[in-house]
Amino acid sequence: MSFDEEDSIEHTLLVVREVSVFKIPPRSTSGGYKCGEWLQSDKIWSGRLRVVSCKDRCEIRLEDPNSGELFAACFIHPGQRESSVEPALDSSRYFVLKIEDGNGKHAFIGLGFNERNEAFDFNVALSDHEKHVRRENEKETGETSDSDSHIDIHPAVNHRLKEGETIRINVKHKPSSGTSMLSAAGLSGSGKPKTLSLAPPPSGAGKIRSPLPPPPNDPVAARLASTSQGVGQRAPKENMKQTNPSTYLSQLEVCL
């Protein structure tokens, strides 16, 4: 393959069916272009857009969708993307292209996409071309070593079992931690139960209580209660009287 034939090889990176071209006013400020200043009446053409890679040069071609006739072309040389394609300041769907007639004359036109994803693909296509040119230049200058460009690919190993093959797995039994549970329950690991000691019942301090309370209005119980209260309290000596035991017993017999 000759050098001329290599230059004639083209790779189409992107095709957009319909785009709009506008006649734009001169740049008002040094900051950039604003598509809001372009009027709908300034639309001069609509048709197909193609991004083509021609070795180290990228071309943006505006063509008639039916006949393929070229309306205008924007040439992007290496490192000159910013001067050839400039995005609008107020919208991501509009750009300004520097078109050339091949005789040294150039002009600036406005380019508009109908959808944002088309404008996004347009930027990606231009970036892919720049990356491709950069890699080719690195290969020619030898900046990248052979070890970096060479990728060692090992053949894939088939780990599937053939018919009739089996897999044997040895599983070691781990002793269960039953000792800790037995010790927590009060049992030793040897299996011998420990003697469980029960707390003694609360002492009654020698007091015997009647299981049932005495019936109401019981004269005997009333006398016993008044007697116990009198014993617990000390009256003055001049008011204290000694009770005859025989008299107290005779009263109990009469009551019973």
UniProtKB/TrEMBL annotation:
<feature type="region of interest" description="Disordered">
    <location>
        <begin position="130"/>
        <end position="151"/>
    </location>
</feature>
<dbReference type="InterPro" id="IPR012466">
    <property type="entry name" value="NECAP_PHear"/>
</dbReference>
<feature type="compositionally biased region" description="Low complexity">
    <location>
        <begin position="176"/>
        <end position="191"/>
    </location>
</feature>
<feature type="domain" description="NECAP PHear">
    <location>
        <begin position="9"/>
        <end position="172"/>
    </location>
</feature>
<dbReference type="GO" id="GO:0030125">
    <property type="term" value="C:clathrin vesicle coat"/>
</dbReference>
<protein>
    <recommendedName>
        <fullName>NECAP PHear domain-containing protein</fullName>
    </recommendedName>
</protein>
<dbReference type="GO" id="GO:0006897">
    <property type="term" value="P:endocytosis"/>
</dbReference>
<feature type="region of interest" description="Disordered">
    <location>
        <begin position="174"/>
        <end position="244"/>
    </location>
</feature>
<dbReference type="InterPro" id="IPR011993">
    <property type="entry name" value="PH-like_dom_sf"/>
</dbReference>
<dbReference type="Pfam" id="PF07933">
    <property type="entry name" value="DUF1681"/>
</dbReference>
